[in-house]
């Protein structure tokens, strides 16, 4: 029996993880569930999945939930609660599915204990990739991607020598605005941006998909996970989201991983690797797929994708600035305070404001994240 700690159990990935675990009760038990503030859903999850304890970051909500459920389950609170769970909890696998920079600290605590990290929280690798890779080596932690593109690449690489990789090719659906012109993007609204054609996800990543920042963050994620540079990581638009990514080898052979778009598969694989388990998910019916198409991305229209490539090349603290600025801008867009094209504008503004530092330590990363947010808040 393996014990799982889920960070972000009420999110889209968290809920899918619980669906996966429901069918694998003979193999996994749940150590703890953590959320930010959604105690109504957490309460239901506690009754159904019986974790040993839970964490609610919002202190008030934590108290409220503890009163509601009495001694059925211990509720920890605050960011310290997340750190306490990851640092001292009794678990084997961390499913890291918080959204945003908030995932960094608890994920690091878990790495320091040499755990398997099933990583959905891509922002952790974007802001602190170099440090995370070093810590994983130092503490013997295993980083297994949950993100579907990286899971696809990881699966293509099983049994392969990494020195034979020519190129990673990440697929991108292109999001809801694939067929709009840059001019059209000036006036798109929130509802249109949240209407993703293939995936049902949390709001932040859905907006990231509409700007294609999501693919940009994934390019940086791939850089750290697989150790390749800008010239060897390509993006191709594939609107059907059936091929989740490709690996091209030096002899010209290309491998791909295919399946209908459903995050339960990469989540299960991150838990089961190197094994595979039978399941009841919808399997792919090839004759039913009318066509699979591919296009070059438009870097002029999707400026966020270009910015992500640029900061990856620069390295240092720039990806942390880009991430913080993107989180601020997306949150403003979700609140209706800025327009869609102000998202890349905001990121550019932050990148111009701060100088780059090579090889930042953790302190510098926290400081830069905070300073970038403060600066941008003061400019709106
Ligand atoms: P959601 O917004 O659906 O869920 C986020 C989860 O994190 C919720 O449980 C939320 O709790 C919790 N949370 C949010 N903010 C904080 C915080 N400051 N401190 C502690 N907990 C917090 O996100 P997704 O599930 O869509 O995405 C999670 C991560 O996985 C992201 O990094 C995303 O990029 C990545 N990912 C997601 C995919 C998807 O299909 N959704 C695919 C690939 C990667 P509460 O409900 O209380 O707010
Ligand atoms: Mg993805």
Largest sheet: 7 strands, parallel
Bound molecules: NADPH dihydro-nicotinamide-adenine-dinucleotide phosphate, magnesium ion
Helical content, roughly?
40-55%
The helix/strand series, from N terminus to C terminus, equals EHEHEHEHEHEHEHEHHHHEEEHHHHH
Q: How many strand segments?
A: 11
Mean pLDDT: 97
| N/C terminus separation | 51 Å
Share in β-strands: 15-25%
Query: How many helix segments?
Result: 16
- Secondary-structure class: alpha/beta
Radius of gyration: 20 Å
General shape: globular
How would you portray this structure in words?
The chain is α/β, with parallel strands linked by helices and 380 residues long. Helices cover 47% and strands 16% of the residues. It has 16 helices and eleven strands. Strands 4-3-2-1-5-6-7 form a seven-stranded parallel sheet, sandwiched between helices. A four-stranded mixed sheet has the order 9-8-10-11, covered by helices on one side. Strand 5, helix 5 and strand 6 form a beta-alpha-beta unit. Helix 4 runs parallel beside helix 5 and helix 11 packs parallel to helix 13. It is globular, with a radius of gyration of 20 Å. The N and C termini lie far apart (51 Å). The model has no long low-confidence stretch (mean pLDDT 97). The structure holds NADPH dihydro-nicotinamide-adenine-dinucleotide phosphate and magnesium ion. The site of magnesium ion has 4 residues, from helix 7.
């Amino acid at each position: 029996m393996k014990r799982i700690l889920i960070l972000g159990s009420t999110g889209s990935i968290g809920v899918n993880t619980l669906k996966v675990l429901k069918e694998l009760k003979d193999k996994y038990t749940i150590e703890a569930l953590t959320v930010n503030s959604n105690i109504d859903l957490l309460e239901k999850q506690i009754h159904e999945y019986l974790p040993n304890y839970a964490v609610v970051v919002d202190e008030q909500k934590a108290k409220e939930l503890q009163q509601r459920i009495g001694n059925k389950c211990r509720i920890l609170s605050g960011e310290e609660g997340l750190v306490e769970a990851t640092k001292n909890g009794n678990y084997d696998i961390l499913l890291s599915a918080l959204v945003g920079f908030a995932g960094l600290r608890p994920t690091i605590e878990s790495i320091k204990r040499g755990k398997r990290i099933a990583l959905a929280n891509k922002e952790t690798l974007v802001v602190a990739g170099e440090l995370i890779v070093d810590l994983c080596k130092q503490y013997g932690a295993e980083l297994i991607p949950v993100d579907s593109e990286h899971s696809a690449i990881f699966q293509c690489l099983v049994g392969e020598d990494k020195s034979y990789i020519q190129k990673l090719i990440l697929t991108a659906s292109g999001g809801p605005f694939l067929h709009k012109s840059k001019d059209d993007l000036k006036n798109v609204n929130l509802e249109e941006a949240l209407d993703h054609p293939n995936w049902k996800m949390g709001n932040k990543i859905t907006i990231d998909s509409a700007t294609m920042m999501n693919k940009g963050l994934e390019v940086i994620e791939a850089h750290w996970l697989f150790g390749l540079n800008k010239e060897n990581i390509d993006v191709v638009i594939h609107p059907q989201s059936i091929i989740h990514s490709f690996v091209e080898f030096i002899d010209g052979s290309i491998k791909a991983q295919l399946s209908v778009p459903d995050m339960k598969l990469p989540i299960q694989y991150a838990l089961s690797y190197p094994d595979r388990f039978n399941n009841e998910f919808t399997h792919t019916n090839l004759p039913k797929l009318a066509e699979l198409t591919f296009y070059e991305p438009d870097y002029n229209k999707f400026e966020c994708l270009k910015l992500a490539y640029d900061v990856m090349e620069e390295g240092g603290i720039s990806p942390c600035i880009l991430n913080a600025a993107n989180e601020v801008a997306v949150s403003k867009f979700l609140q209706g305070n800025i327009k869609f094209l102000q998202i890349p504008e905001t990121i550019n503004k932050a990148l111009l404001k701060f100088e780059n530092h090579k090889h930042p330590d953790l302190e510098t990363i926290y400081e830069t994240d905070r300073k970038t947010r403060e600066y941008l808040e003061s400019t709106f």
